[in-house]
Amino acid sequence: MLSVVLIATGCRLDVDVAVSMAADGSGTVSLRAVADSELVAAAPAAAQRPLVDDLVSAGWTVDGPTPTDDGGMVLVLTHRFDDGGDLTALLATIGPPIIDPVVVRELSADDVGRITAADTTLSATLGLPEGFASFSDADLVNALGGEPFAADLAGLQPDDVMTVEMTVALPDTSVEGGEKIETFTAPLDGSTTEINMSAQQRTERPRSFASVAADVLAVVLVAWVIASVGFIAWVLMARRRRYG
């Protein structure tokens, strides 16, 4: 889809990738592609009926394409993930300009196995170091006898015709609202940038039976000491009155 929509000068494609992780580490990845009216006019069949059967087979939900008020089109793809490893795989399938994504989620537990903390990190390289060639691979080049749309794209750079932003929302109990949100813009001029994001979740340590029992015994001990001191004082006073 990206290759097809870039064939005409003046056309634009804006892509937003949104990652939203819930407190348990699961969540969704959404990709929203917006083609402007010039793009729709230049490639109406590709814009109005994109080939997404393989994406549906891979578990993606497809919404659209939906016409915009100014004559463009919007296509939204959504996929759920269960954990950090699943999210890493999903981001990797999107491919450039998201390069080498890694999501790690480390959990901590108390002495009875209950989760008390979670540390989540997301890192990746953003960019198209090989320009439009980043959207193809050796098998595709060999099959076509050259890079796709090489003649149509001559003299153009990816940032001339498209933008890509990635917004990540991770659960974080240290910030207001319990969610840390950051937005990253992918450089499309041949350069790359490294992104790193981390979030922390902390819960009050659950009280085990042993800790509750220890507190009860401490209270009983204090009460016994107070009672003993009081009894000794009463005996001393009684003897003083008797023999005083």
Provide a descriptive summary of the structure in words.
The protein is of the alpha+beta class. It has 2 domains: 2-202, no CATH class; 210-244. The protein is 32% helix and 36% strand. The protein is built from 8 helices and 9 strands. The chain has helices spanning 2-5, 37-42, 44-48, 53-57, 84-94, 138-144, 158-161, 209-243, and strands at residues 13-21, 27-35, 61-67, 73-81, 98-109, 115-127, 162-171, 179-185, 192-202. A 6-stranded mixed beta sheet has the order 3-4-2-1-7-8. A hairpin with a 7-residue loop joins strand 7 (162-171) and strand 8. The radius of gyration is 31 Å and the shape is rod-shaped. It starts with a helix and ends with a helix.
